[in-house]
Specification:
homooctamer, 2 domains, 4-stranded mixed beta sheet, 247 residues, alpha/beta
Chain lengths: 247, 247, 247, 247, 247, 247, 247, 247
Amino acid sequence: MTGIEEILEKVANKEMSVSDAEKALKSGSYADLGFAKLDTGRSERSGFPEVVYCEGKLDEHLVSIFKRLFDSEGRVLGTRANKHQYEIVREEVSAAVYDPVSRLITAGKPLKAGGMIAICCGGTSDVPVAEEAAQTAEFFGCRVERIYDVGVSGLHRLLSKTDVIREANCVVAIAGMEGALASVVGGLARVPVIAVPTSVGYGANFEGLSALLSMINSCANGVAVVNIDNGYGAGYLAAQINRLAVR
Amino acid sequence: MTGIEEILEKVANKEMSVSDAEKALKSGSYADLGFAKLDTGRSERSGFPEVVYCEGKLDEHLVSIFKRLFDSEGRVLGTRANKHQYEIVREEVSAAVYDPVSRLITAGKPLKAGGMIAICCGGTSDVPVAEEAAQTAEFFGCRVERIYDVGVSGLHRLLSKTDVIREANCVVAIAGMEGALASVVGGLARVPVIAVPTSVGYGANFEGLSALLSMINSCANGVAVVNIDNGYGAGYLAAQINRLAVR
Amino acid sequence: MTGIEEILEKVANKEMSVSDAEKALKSGSYADLGFAKLDTGRSERSGFPEVVYCEGKLDEHLVSIFKRLFDSEGRVLGTRANKHQYEIVREEVSAAVYDPVSRLITAGKPLKAGGMIAICCGGTSDVPVAEEAAQTAEFFGCRVERIYDVGVSGLHRLLSKTDVIREANCVVAIAGMEGALASVVGGLARVPVIAVPTSVGYGANFEGLSALLSMINSCANGVAVVNIDNGYGAGYLAAQINRLAVR
Amino acid sequence: MTGIEEILEKVANKEMSVSDAEKALKSGSYADLGFAKLDTGRSERSGFPEVVYCEGKLDEHLVSIFKRLFDSEGRVLGTRANKHQYEIVREEVSAAVYDPVSRLITAGKPLKAGGMIAICCGGTSDVPVAEEAAQTAEFFGCRVERIYDVGVSGLHRLLSKTDVIREANCVVAIAGMEGALASVVGGLARVPVIAVPTSVGYGANFEGLSALLSMINSCANGVAVVNIDNGYGAGYLAAQINRLAVR
Amino acid sequence: MTGIEEILEKVANKEMSVSDAEKALKSGSYADLGFAKLDTGRSERSGFPEVVYCEGKLDEHLVSIFKRLFDSEGRVLGTRANKHQYEIVREEVSAAVYDPVSRLITAGKPLKAGGMIAICCGGTSDVPVAEEAAQTAEFFGCRVERIYDVGVSGLHRLLSKTDVIREANCVVAIAGMEGALASVVGGLARVPVIAVPTSVGYGANFEGLSALLSMINSCANGVAVVNIDNGYGAGYLAAQINRLAVR
Amino acid sequence: MTGIEEILEKVANKEMSVSDAEKALKSGSYADLGFAKLDTGRSERSGFPEVVYCEGKLDEHLVSIFKRLFDSEGRVLGTRANKHQYEIVREEVSAAVYDPVSRLITAGKPLKAGGMIAICCGGTSDVPVAEEAAQTAEFFGCRVERIYDVGVSGLHRLLSKTDVIREANCVVAIAGMEGALASVVGGLARVPVIAVPTSVGYGANFEGLSALLSMINSCANGVAVVNIDNGYGAGYLAAQINRLAVR
Amino acid sequence: MTGIEEILEKVANKEMSVSDAEKALKSGSYADLGFAKLDTGRSERSGFPEVVYCEGKLDEHLVSIFKRLFDSEGRVLGTRANKHQYEIVREEVSAAVYDPVSRLITAGKPLKAGGMIAICCGGTSDVPVAEEAAQTAEFFGCRVERIYDVGVSGLHRLLSKTDVIREANCVVAIAGMEGALASVVGGLARVPVIAVPTSVGYGANFEGLSALLSMINSCANGVAVVNIDNGYGAGYLAAQINRLAVR
Amino acid sequence: MTGIEEILEKVANKEMSVSDAEKALKSGSYADLGFAKLDTGRSERSGFPEVVYCEGKLDEHLVSIFKRLFDSEGRVLGTRANKHQYEIVREEVSAAVYDPVSRLITAGKPLKAGGMIAICCGGTSDVPVAEEAAQTAEFFGCRVERIYDVGVSGLHRLLSKTDVIREANCVVAIAGMEGALASVVGGLARVPVIAVPTSVGYGANFEGLSALLSMINSCANGVAVVNIDNGYGAGYLAAQINRLAVR
């Protein structure tokens, strides 16, 4: 979708044949690895490099994608990775680092951006999702303040951190069970709140549905929701918002 | 189920025939009005008189039930009543009074009990449910403190009432949308919290399901839930708990 | 929650009694109208004044709230209002203006902020939700580009607007039925995309659930979701993001 | 249901007794193996031979069915097979071949038909379902163009294949998560689009429900949906459509 | 998306400026009516003209769209129309005809195609959906055989029509309640079966969900499903399949 | 499906041509009224005449069906009828009688069968469903004992009727809300219990889903369930069982 | 609940003290094993002995219950048993026999009753549920005709067994996927049809929900439904009906 | 939230600096362990010490929390613990005791309170949930009467315990499947009934949803519900109610 003008100029100047131009216009920018079409134009389009969702990928595919992206971008982020995947990646991309809590593989230096976001979570069981969000945001250049274990049944724990919440460029609120944290944080913050329902809980939480519905129906303004347990998505979005705030 | 011993004594003393005793043992205590079986033993069994669910009852049935109960108990409570129903009831039971917000008809003096319960609700749209709870509890002898419009997106409104919450014998927490109020109140109270999800909200609240799931999954201790919009049920239960506390 | 230090200083300086200070610390800032507790501190807390959800409010309450807020803030926004509500509000607040498509009442000048957001919707039936979002964002100081009727079954309509999408500080994607617009827009934008599922559709759309699930599961990065038909919520959030971008 | 006329002629000509004719009319055409009733008339009725759903079948039953069908039809297709099942089948039907990705066992030559169908899928995780569709369609005589990893968050990858889509006799669109691919493909194709929701995704995808609802509510014309992960069903249907187009 | 080559040739030949070419490539083909973007390229793309979904459209928009399409295409189909909409359309497009059962407005001659499709429905209450399907297919050039009131609780009614089902190029199976008709028809037909669940029924049919789930899980091969009550969608798809069969 | 032997005999005896026989075998027994296919063989097949579901039928169709069935069978039952439908039916079938509670139209004498069934319901709001069941069973020849308003929150009312329950050939248990009546009755009866969930209740009863799930999961043996509010279905089934018991 | 009269007579005759009578009236008949209360009066109440649900029972409890019931009744049926449970039971109750398909343990001779029921199932995967139903019914004295693998996509297989269906006292219809078998059988039978949805299938069958909804919404008369995979429940109910028919 | 007055007095008396006071007011009372924020003020706030939810906690965190709480409170309760967790806790807190049925770890003496509550459950499979409730209530000072295996299909078992139910200060009713026990107990008791749905059952019980809906829709007064399998929550709430009754 990019560079249309450039291609047309070349055609007008006879630097490019009509059929080559047609092909270029139609194919856009991706690298066809056979088993996958790497979206190599994403970095230009979105300002952030493509990220690799590791879960369920075949070993050779995973390694090949990681290598290709690291070579072209200088940095890669892989999500939902297990230890084995990390080990085979590291053989080809020695800069790769793994965090077993967030299940992220990172290689290369984080982007530079500046600006702070706050990440709150309700209980200690929500920490893996919170760390996925936090480290993703850090990879994309944010400074992250972690405000963990601040469930609403003991409000004073959260209230003691009001200052941090009010200084952030974006707040991520992560909770399972009834997901009430999002509304309470939404009432304290003056910036966008990204709510992440988690599957933490039991019984009628229905794998996170209760927290999802709760957060989607939040009575507070300025709250939007991503998928259940989707710490990566929240971290990405928070980094986008932070980038707007600091540019 | 009551008075078995008494019946048996009569049989042993030949004051009652075997067949009469059999009938008495089998029929228990109810008044068969033909169209309905009034549970006249309920007052003895539960300590509270039977309550009339008005919605959908035929006019003549409603009036007949009200009159019968008022005559035998000296007081009646009718729930989910409309104006027309009130008017026809009043013709036979002149002591009847109607409140259009809670949709309750009451006749006769409230029970005497003493003790205070607190009723909190999230927004002004929840008030009809809150009043159904409050007036039911008052009918059954509670003093009620109303803490309305204290949704969690402006926490200070609720926190300023912490003292009342901590003095009550029972707290009713009523909210629609994401129902987060129940968990926050549950964290502040030291007595049972009865949570009432309401159908207030829109979109993915699914007529109160979001608040119901939220409250059932509350991370706070000491919270139990009644049906969506069931202010009556919460008021009844709060009165039961209050009665235990003041007896 | 604000001004704690100030209160403490007064206590230390004997300018305020302990009991007055205790009351002040506990009550926070709200105006108790009896039937409601107006969150007068919201403007300071969030940077945006409190907004009135009109649906279901009693006439006298609505007018009283509008007047109070207009007098103190100089501007008010009312959502989900009907014509009758507008007319009674206008009698007290003559500056009030009504738009029957978005169902918004506005009074006073919009905030000044600058910056542009784009609002896309899938079909003409989604326009009321889109206008609620657009006019809310405008009230809070955004310039809004409207990209309507760009459903994904005729992709070229959307693609012809790629430039606008890529210049915006935030994009709102509004769609009913299968809600695919959010993912396609998410692939084109480099800024946060706020997705609004609508109840437009029929059959198995289940009043917007299909679009909600679709958007929550979006394969694109940088997409977060608000409640079904919640144009106001999306406009508010977009304005928050825009404010960060232009400050 | 077929051959009624023929039977009646025989009865009229005394070539068949009334009781034999009654039996024949009632029993239709199937082979009773004791544990199963093989629908041997299906090939005549549908033009395609019966297919074996392997999952959960007892070993001896599976082998016996395979052998019987291969002997009478000269070709067999088995779906949802595991490696062990393949190995025991191959002992009796040496022509059997197994593909671990699609989990299909095939024996005998594919049908001859001609004509091309296109199979698109959103991500690499959808490939097993896509291959089940592709190889089923090939078994029933289609030429298949595979267009894989063309999720809508990078539209240019799909758009570069528009020509293939527009030359096919039928297009199969396979996607998990939000399933938006079906609508986008539906907008590009002029032939029927068979949509296959997959269970790929996490969180609120609810094992494929989100993609199913999305596809059933597609805003594009000419899209119909089969069961979650049902690549076989889509391949079968595409082959039926292709057969109509090339006959 | 079409004519890229042609545009490029003009650029190469200096018959078109680079900026005009860029605009043309980006805008595709649609008519911007302000309130809507008419997809005027659809006829070329899909072979069928754009169809107007009438429900919920403003009067002046509806008339304007109808007139525009009728003028450019010579024929228009409008779905889910009410009587009032028909009357205002007829004032501008005098050729318009209305059928209150199917709620379709048609103007201009049907397409010519030839070929027969069969439309079966379970009960008389399903007839409006069946007629929407039938008349849509007729508008797009099919001959339609109607097989109505053939619910599976009286199988002989359906079996007596087996011949018609086996001669059709496509069969549409429409049923509410348990939707079993789709599977039974699927077992009799050798061509694709398009299943339409209807909202006919009561109790646990959940507005058509029971029939939808039933049809999506059909044990028969060659069955695909469209949205609840979506007769139009089924008719359109059947016409696409029929067109492939007769071309 | 009946009389195959007879037809074959005629063919063998040349009393019937092959083509006439083929037609007879294929068409089964129904009367084609154009708009509907009356299942005239049902009485022979099931022992009970066809019943007319009135809701949603066009006036002339309804009258024509009623007349046709009354003429051929001597009795008809119509369900879910409104007053208007009764009045137009009565003009043609003067024997028709209407009951506004059960919404049944009956014409002609009930079948004779003998034997008693018991019908229990939880509250007075369930009576319309209970009467639909009771009068249906009476039409098909049962004697019915009505045990109404015996909800499980006052068990003694039900227990006083244990003798009737234990003398019946079948018991129908009808309840809304939590539907517990089915399990309690199931524990008291020694004959089949047909459970009918009703849509009576509010809040999280979800139009009868709570009672349906409750009854389907009954811990008692010998309980089977029909659709929500389907009094007719329960009455029909009870009559079938009763007929087996008394034959 | 039984023998009230007898107890009263004894009291009147001074053969029993009042307090003993009170205890007897209150306790009913059960054997308190400490960990469980065996319902020893069930055989008298229901005509069938108590059945043991084995799944999840502790080993010593299971054996103790089996032994107790076998000693008092002379026969026992255990459902959902695994091999280990069978082996430990057999050590104490040597007459015990196990069938791994139906997972039933039986000990002692079946009841004698006579009469035939038919059990149909859709596919070979439904056989375990069908056998649970069949062997339960046999244990309670029925003769069972098995009609397996008669899914509706090959109707002639089922139609060839119409005679058996029409001779049975009750028909059990067992199917997964779309569960259409129940309606088709319901149209063929003149006796009650007990429908059993199974969890067989994949994708949107949601563990049997699709078949359950389908069967509950059956368009055929005389169909009632038991829980998913509940072959035991269907066999029990069929035996109750059969017993009524043959007594 | 407590001690505000005390802090303010110190400030007024210059015993505390303004900045220290500010910090104290903001931080409330919790112990920050780094990985968790222990709510050390809960005992004062709620009258009951904080309870440890063990499931999913890291070993070192669990032990550290247990030790800290035991040291400060003298007693601890841990829920949902496995054997391994008990063993590592016991190394540091030698007073710890484990019950594998309820999965509770207790250390220290129970609270003293007095008063009796009754805990009923439907079947032997519900015992683990019942024991979690019972032992929790005992830890918080209640005397507990266990009334187990009293499912409603054999009512006499429950009715024989009516006296205990009527003497309790609170009744907990625990059941899976259809959850009818709650309504029946609610009709017998005169005190609050806490209902606990369990996930016991199969098929359409949907992991406890059927019992949850049943209990939430109870027709009995004075019933409130906690989460599925949440024995702990019910025991806690019952202890709160009991404490009110005996104070």
